[in-house]
Amino acid sequence: MTGPRVGLLCLGPMEPLRRPLSPCSSRPSSPRSPPCETSVSVGIEAVLDQLKIKAMKMGFEFNIMVVGQSGLGKSTMVNTLFKSKVWKSSLPGLATPTPQTLQLHSVTHVIEEKGVKLKLTVTDTPGFGDQINNDKCWDPILGYINEQYERYLQEEILITRQRHIPDTRVHCCVYFVPPTGHCLRPLDIEFLQRLCRTVNVVPVIARADSLTIEEREAFRSRKCFDEDINDRILNSKIRERIPFAVVGADREHLVNGRCVLGRKTKWGIVEVENMAHCEFPLLRDLLIRSHLQDLKDITHNVHYENYRVVRLNESHLLPRGPGWVNLAPASTQQLTTPAPLKVRRRVQEDPKDEF
User: Mean pLDDT across the chain, nearest whole number?
Assistant: First the structure.
């Protein structure tokens, strides 16, 4: 019994299959020759595009607090920073009653620029430093900052928590120093020393157009605290100008055929964005263009982490059980107590153990 016949088409003598030579195969292989590297892209750089799309969709949050005596132009400065009516300024010549006690007011706006949305929350502190007795006038401010840390902590330790925890923590506190022409007042020094342990503080000299250049320099602190050489180079221009001598304005004037933001006086116009007139551009760069994310990272990794460690250590005094991680509400004394001077730092592991 014979099987089915299969017809074969013969094209000629059979030759071994030849494959096109690759650049790697043309080079003789030897133990000493380096491995061949392909030029085909894997696509790792596309991760940046993914992060950008996600960030554009979620938007950004930034919480800023302004502290200073009444009449220093805090509201005008905030409006100038973000070029919008974030806070309503009082009309000139209209007397506003001075609060008997320190009050805190917050307002939230969503600002959009070129498709990027920023949820901005500004907290004002009317009544600060306006009383005859300003003893412990920083306690309500310190209590408010720690209260936001407490809210975030209570949400973070929940077993079933939100995917995105609302962030009301203060990322930066801009402190307005009155233009006295002399050194810092004891109130200014005490406030800065207490709050710099709990929040990022940026001091500015308000209404700096009323000071001479020599009086501005008297406020300067030229010490450099940056340990990393790259950070020192990046921040040297900003460090030597702190506290910034700034001028706020929400009106435009015509100067040499162009409209500029500035304050009109009898002797001329003080241009807000002119470095020869004031240092507002440096303040804007610090808060928005170059260090906004750094301020948020330091708030989370340093200030909030310090508060979190202290509160979790206190939880060991509570009765342990299935829900022992639930913290008791923080007392008023805990909220108004400054953080310890020692900053808790994470121990950096060997880079080889990262993956």
Answer: 75
